[in-house]
Amino acid sequence: MAPEFQERRRTPRVQVEGKHEFRLGRRLRVRVVDISASGALLVADERLPVGSVGRLQISLGGNQFEGQVQIKREQPAGAEKGHLIGSVMTPSQPRHQEALDQFLRRAGS
Prior knowledge:
Elements: E1 14-15, E2 20-23, E3 27-35, E4 39-44, E5 53-60, E6 63-76, E7 83-91, H1 94-106
């Protein structure tokens, strides 16, 4: 059994549906479990080293979001296949920040 994932987020997270892509020198499919104004919890099929930096591209409520993501925590997902990845995000452009803000507002965060 995997140890409890210690919660460190400072803002609420919202679940995200759909297909997502994370690039870390190569393309890697991930599932975004939830997202907040400053980070996201991902599930990846393989381990991603803490400190790694990549790009995340997702559609949030019909608007495209792209941002730099840094891996802060990683652990086996337990009952779920793969690895839980705790990350912090920085939107690439102001329009991506606005897409994230709108998505979170609509979700009631």
